[in-house]
Amino acid sequence: MIYRRKSYKVDESIIKDFNRHFNQTLLPTQLKYGARLVGRWMAQPAEGAVEIFAIWQYDSREEYENIENKVRNDMEHVQRVQNWFEKMGGRENLGKFFFQVNEDFLETTVPEGNTILSF
Question: Rounded to whole angstroms, how far apart are CA atoms 44 and 52?
Fold first, then answer.
């Protein structure tokens, strides 16, 4: 089992739009192709910025890559994402609101039967 952590540091002015975009556009397509969301959280605003991060669970890195490939090749999904970019003033404009985006992969250090993820 591997876990993907995706984190963002964004301007608090776009939180509502970004969370709606995640829930209405990004999440349904990920779930459609087999991604498993452990959870998605955000911190309290600090100095005008908010940290948001999600943890996803996959059986392997290969499974993650297969799912991501299907998502990237889903033309209806790509169009919905593009529409959101345009609504937000264009992809290049989002650099004003997204201060940092990170992604890394994690492995558990305890037997999975000892966590709440063992269902």
Answer: 10
